[in-house]
What does this fold into?
Amino acid sequence: MRGRGSFLISILGLSFSLLLALLLRDWALRSPYFRIEQIRVKGNRLLDREEILQLAKPAEGQNIFRFKASQIDNQLEANPVVERAKIVKRPPHLIEIRVEEQEPLFLVNRGGRLLVQGDGFTIDPHSPLDLPTLSGADDLGERYAEELALQMKREDPTLLDMVSQIRWEKGITLWLQDGCRVELGEGNFGEKTSHLKRLLALLKDAGDNPGFIDLRFRGQAVVSKGRKL
It folds into this structure.
């Protein structure tokens, strides 16, 4: 009898705990205490913060537990710049929008519009985003520029940071931040990128600031030296 009584007490205790949990859940889903009052945005560089907040505006005032994150992240991920978006709920009042953007390589100058890597996403020409600008390129030029930029990223990310402009005219021409012009031509960018990295290091060690470098021809480099550093 004692064992049976203990079993009944355990069942009653479990039932009471489940009932309490259900009551607390129902209270949390209905309570105005858990209304969304603050929205935080993290990770955006290209997308405007206010644009993201505008998408999230319908969430304000909703119960944080009833709110469906897909209402926002699906809209954000439809944007070609966004690789993924994640909504984190931080009860009682805060939701956090975490945005992972595609890593852009360069901007494309199209009739005064700046497009991020040619994908159609336009940014303000006065944006603080510091990326090389590609000009004069058709579809082939954009493909060559992307191939080159990816190769530079793999070789040494600081190489691409040194580039201010990319010009396409029957071949790739780079303008570096210090004003040096680099002729690369078409293709074989892996070898040319490695050659350029070694050459710039040698010139820097020698205290030379080149005005022109020609790497169009395999195994050859033409350098026009500028002023002493």
